[in-house]
Amino acid sequence: MGDPYYPTVDVAFIVQKILDSKKVIPESKFEMGRTTTFVMANDKPMHKRHVTVRHFDGQINFEQATGKAILFGFMGDLLEWYEENRDWKEGGYINK
Q1: Is residue 92 one of the residues assigned to a domain?
Q2: Cβ atoms 78, 59 nearer than 8 A
Q3: What is the longest distance spanned by two Cα atoms in the chain?
Q4: Does this model's pTM top 0.85?
Q5: What CA–CA distance (Å, rounded) separates 94 from 89?
Q6: CB 31 within 8 A of CB 49
Q7: Is 19 contained in some domain?
Q8: CB under 8 Å to 96, separation ≥6 — which residues?
Q9: Which residues span the domain enclosing 26?
Q10: CA Rg value for the chain
Q11: Burial of 75 (0-12, 13-18, 19+ CB in 10 A)
Q12: What is the C-alpha separation between 96 and 92, in angstroms, rounded?
């Protein structure tokens, strides 16, 4: 588990953003327990195209969410989500 200071992200948000990126094969989505997997749509070897998202109680830790946002190109949307849903901006919690 990540540092408890950092906010977590809803797994539904991350999964939807991954699908919206068009970088994965939508039909490849597979869920088993607390794990969701995808296969990226490119010509690299299979072991390099496999994407795994692990969650705990429907939440993904900060480090994993940031990594997926960088890989799939939705970092701006993730930062907006943090601000709107977790009152977290630019490395710290904010008062609204």
Answers
A1: no
A2: no
A3: 47
A4: yes
A5: 7
A6: no
A7: yes
A8: 87
A9: 9-87
A10: 14
A11: middle
A12: 13
Identify the pLDDT of residue 6. 87
In-domain check, residue 46: yes
By C-alpha distance, which of 83, 84, 61 is closest to 14? 61
Q: Which 3 state secondary structure label does DSSP give 38?
A: strand
CA distance 3 to 27: 33
Q: CB atoms < 10 A from the CB of 35, how many? A: 11
Which residues make beta-bridge pairs with 40? 24
pLDDT given for residue 93 in this prediction: 79
Q: List per-residue pLDDT tens for the chain, 96 residues long.
A: 556 778 999 999 999 999 999 999 999 999 999 999 999 999 999 899 999 999 999 999 999 999 999 999 999 999 999 999 988 887 777 776
Q: Which residue has the tokens 């327990």?
A: 33
The amino acid occupying position 48 is K
How many domains would you assign to the chain?
A: 1
38, part of any domain: yes
> What is the rounded CA–CA span in Å between residue 67 and residue 9?
12
